[in-house]
Amino acid sequence: MATLRFSTLVFPVILSVFMLMNFDLSIMTVNARYLLETSLPEGLPKPEIPSLPNLELPPLPKVELPPLPHLPPLEKPKLPELPKFPELPKLPNLDHSKISKDSSLPKLSEVSELPKPELPKLPELPNFPKPEVPKLPELPNVPKPELPKLPELPPLSKPVLPSLPKDIPFPSFNSPHATRTNP
């Protein structure tokens, strides 16, 4: 089993906790400053709130890119000429009346009626006697048993459900961080 160093496991945890603490403190200082500036009476002097100095970053050095090599302009590709095809003959307008009278079309020979195929006759089956079903014996009329009568119950009243008082607010399912407003 591989052993882990203490620093590889603990250092990222310490770093993430430190970052979370700094994030929460910056939110708290902004909110505290906003509350102090807005909630003080007019006659009282405003307390001095230490603020972090604005860090000025040094300007980044300008990086000059080497010029791109000039490419020659693209020439239009020369396409080979397509061969010219001879014109196709035009077909005449098709009229059904003219086609049937045109004698240049070959006529189809009339087909005589085909003889109907003769199906072989099936052999006749002998007459089987019908099976006799025995009759069930008739049962004598038996009187129906009398059931005892159930007592009549009074009708049930509608159940009364308890209602919530109107002054109890409904629970909110929003997260507590969603209601926080920053100035």
UniProtKB/TrEMBL annotation:
It comes from the Eukaryota. Residues 62-72 have a biased composition (Pro residues). Residues 62-183 are annotated as: Disordered. Residues 172-183 have a biased composition (Polar residues). InterPro entries: PELPK1_2. PANTHER family: MUCIN-2, PROTEIN PELPK1-RELATED. This is Periaxin-like. The gene is 103495680.
